Each structure stands twice: as structure tokens, then as C-alpha cells.
Amino acid sequence: MLTILIRFLGDKFKLTIFVLVMASLASAVSVVYSKHQNRLLFVELESLNKERDQMNVEWGQLQLEQSTWATDSRIEKIATEKLHMRNANYENTVIIKL
């Protein structure tokens, strides 16, 4: 009877050790996979941050260009040279009273 109990406990102990070893291996593999995914996502994040910074620079340049194109002196120059517009003076102004 004692021999059967020792053999039974021995088999149960081996099974317990096997389950613990398999659980440890599964945990180790999941840690490695998690670290790998973390690195991939970090690389993607850095790439997106770089792209965002480039877009911010381009946006600033476009805003500067827009403000340059919309200056009063430039608009007045185009109006007089290309459209042949001129400022209204008092002699050419007609006032209509209703």
C-alpha cells in the first residue's frame, strides 16, 4: 500500500512539475512576444511623431506663404497693375441721395 501511495504521489508530482514547466515556458514566450510588439509599436509611434513634426513645419510654411500673398501692398499692386484699378478721388465720386 505504501509503495502504491509513493508511486501515485510520484506520478502526481511529475505531472505538477510538467504543468509548472509548461506554464513557465508559455509565460516566457508571451513576455518575448509582448516585448517584440512593444518595440514595433514604439517604432511606429516614432515614425508618426516624425511625420507630425514635418506636417507642422509644412503648415507653418503655408501659413507664412498665405500671409505673404495677402499683404495689403501686394494686393494694391496687383489691383493697379493687372486690373487697372485706382483709388477713388473726390472729383470722381458721385453721391446719390434718396
Q: Give me the strand/helix succession.
A: HH
Radius of gyration: 40 Å
The helix content is over 70%
Strand elements, count: 0
- Please, what is the average pLDDT? 88
- Helix count, per DSSP? 2
**Given the C-alpha coordinates, what overall shape results?**
rod-shaped
- How much of the sequence is in beta strands? under 5%
Compute the separation of the termini in Å.
125 Å
Sheet with the most strands? none
What structural class is derived from the secondary structure elements?
mainly alpha
**Which regions have little confidence, pLDDT < 50, spanning 5+ residues?**
none
Written account of the structure:
By secondary structure, the chain is mostly helical. It has a domain at 2-60. The protein has 2 helices and no strands. The protein has helices at 2-69, 72-81. The chain is rod-shaped. 0% of the residues are buried.
Chart the SSEs and their pairings.
Blueprint: H1 2-69, H2 72-81
List the keywords.
98 residues, mainly alpha, 2 helices
In short:
By secondary structure, the chain is mainly α. The protein is built from two helices and no strands.
